[in-house]
Amino acid sequence: MRSFAKNGEVVAEWQPQPKYEAFPGVLNGGIIGTLLDCHCNWTAAYHLMKRAGADRPPCTVTAEYSIKLLRPTPTKDPISLSAHVVD
Fold it and tell me: Is the dihedral of CA 20, 23, 27, 33 positive or negative?
C-alpha cells in the first residue's frame, strides 16, 4: 500500500486479497489495524516533513492508538483510507 498527499489529506487505496480474510469475504481485523497504523504513521510523517520544510519524511513510530470495529469489512471492493493531522 502506498499513501499520497491529496487536498490536505493523505490518501491510499488497497485491494484485499483472499489470504487476508478472517472468513470468506471478510477482512481480518488485525489487517485492518495494520492498514490504519501504517497509513496514520505516514500521515504524521508527511505532516512533520512539511512543517519542517524538509525534503524527506522523518522516522516516526506509533506510541498508541485504538480502534473500534463497528461491522465486518468486506473484501470484494478496494479499501479507501484518508487521514489528516489534527493539531
Answer: negative
Q: How far apart are CA 61 and CA 42, in angstroms?
A: 9
> For residue 1, which of 56, 52, 38 has the smallest C-alpha distance?
38
Phi, psi of 28 (to 5 degrees): -65, 135
> What whole-number distance in Å separates Cα of residue 38 and Cα of residue 34?
6
Query: Residue 34: which H helix or E strand, with range?
Result: helix 29-52
The predicted model scores a pTM of: 0.87
Which of 70, 85, 4, 87 is closest to 32 using CA atoms?
A: 70
Locate the domains of the chain by residue range: 23-83
28-44 pLDDT tens trace: 999 999 999 999 999 99
pLDDT at 33: 96
What parts of the chain have a pLDDT lower than 50?
none
